[in-house]
Amino acid sequence: MAQGKFEFVGKGGSYFWLIIWTGLLSIISFGLLWPVAYAAQQRWISHNTYIDGKQLVFLGKGLGIFAVWLKILLLTLITAGIYASWGYCALKRWQVNNLYFADAGDVEQF
């Protein structure tokens, strides 16, 4: 039987400002800094997520997904969208592989 309590404590106001600055960052850079924005959003989500009272922490950096993101973009364009499913899985794999339970020194303040 499945067990465990998941809790999300994020607030709309802080998420709103995160979306504003990450969106502007992506627009100003013509999408080149989207991986940095995505990593920042994942840090915010994990910072506000608890499993059985244990906070999550996301340790991925935008630079760590940049090459994968470029590969996803290029192959999705070349294959007229067919590669998008595999690309999504690669992105999620990177996301989950960089997600941990937080230690006291891992928690950043937002």
Overall outline: globular
Overall tally of structural domains: 1
Strand content: 5-15%
Task: Let me know the number of strands.
Answer: 4
Whole-angstrom Rg: 16 Å
Coarse structural class:
alpha+beta
Order of helices and strands: EHHEEHHE
What are the SSEs and their pairings?
Layout: E1 6-8, H1 12-28, H2 34-47, E2 49-51, E3 54-58, H3 62-78, H4 84-97, E4 99-101
Antiparallel strand pairs: 1-2, 2-3, 3-4
Helix pairs in contact: 1-2, 2-3, 3-4
Structural summary, described in words:
The chain is of the alpha+beta class and 110 residues long. The chain has one domain. Strands 1-2-3-4 form a four-stranded antiparallel β-sheet. The longest helix is centred in the N-terminal third of the chain and has 17 residues. The N and C termini lie far apart (35 Å). The mean pLDDT is 92.
Characterize this entry briefly:
The protein has helices spanning 12-28, 34-47, 62-78, 84-97; strands at residues 6-8, 49-51, 54-58, 99-101. By secondary structure, the chain is an alpha+beta fold. It has a four-stranded antiparallel β-sheet with strand order 1-2-3-4.
